[in-house]
Sequence to fold (422 residues):
Amino acid sequence: MPYQRVKGTRDILPPESAQWVYLEQFIRDFFRRNNYKEIRTPAFEFTELFVRGIGRDTDIVSKEMYTFLDKGGHSLTLKPELTAPVIRAYLQNDLAQQGAVTKLYYIDALFRQERPQKGRLRQFHQFGFEIIGSPYPEADAEVIQTMAALYQSLGIQKMEIRLNSIGSRESRANYLTVLRTALQPFTAEFCPTCQERLQKNILRLFDCKVATCQEILNQQAPSILNYLSAEDTHHFQEVCHLLDISQVVYTIDTKLVRGLDYYTRTTFEITSTLLGSQDAICGGGRYDHLVEDLGGKPTPAVGVASGIERLLLVLNQQGALSIPQPELVYVVTLSEEARAIGFKLLTFLREKGLNAEMDFLRRSLKAQLREADRNQAHWVIILGDDELQRQAYLLKNMRTGEQQNLAFDTPVNTLAEILKRD
Fold:
């Protein structure tokens, strides 16, 4: 039996791989226009980076990371998220010296050992971006507005922006005390996972999809917005105001807390009804202490990450992903001498920027024309005994059926111009 791929991974094959290439290039072009610079970090980091950055009691660190010892006895982890590695690189390479505000984006593969499901695998891919250095609401609003604009430019229609503030660390600590007191009498009614979260990471209760847990929270959990400091409240109101004047439509969701310990103040998600219960296609927020927690000077930051697999699911369900296909020129050769000439011609055409192909199985004329048709070739160049005698190519337009002869000594530029015509 042939080898099988590892559970939770998948092969990305043609023609789907073309969608990935198109989407990644679209993302890169979009962020360049918005003055973000690309950053690429290693596939694995020291485990302590994620323990310190994400939080020891988060599901990612406690249950999902791929961690191993190298030959030197160091604990390493395949990266399960991107913000902590980006901040590590920001500090190690002293990127703050390049400007007071640093704007970075990334596209990368991540690894989490969780139960595979629709749009969520053990090796998955994300893109995202960070604004490092600004404490002000303008940065929060830009991140939200920029991601919404990217989705809109891709043609996504059925999406919703959910917005909340979880306040500063001080505000949140006060809220957690009130929340734990309010929910303690109902401990036995929560699902087993939420009973554990109630003790270790109570904010994660809001991520639970169990109906009975959500009902308790709806009835008993106080709103975190009522426990924000005056400064936190003003910051959140400013973010909302900036989104309002930018005509970004959003919904305030006081149960939106995000699952990573480093978040402060603004949190948000963009969801799509096309994904079912696991409906988030991106999530992010402000993290004003992460740089300091990882050994740097106090530096505010805000960012967001989006799952590429989930985004492609939405785009394909909507039929919104339209990939322009380059016109194909297919070179048909019918003898040894013709194959040599055809191969040389193939090289020249590709050098002129044309999408050119030829037969590599020495098939009959009929079979090669059938292959050209299957590949939706616009033009076919036929080289057989008659063409060799006339010293001329036979050009056939596969869409109109029109044919013409063109001498072998025709300049390649002239031939290329003819083949680029409709």
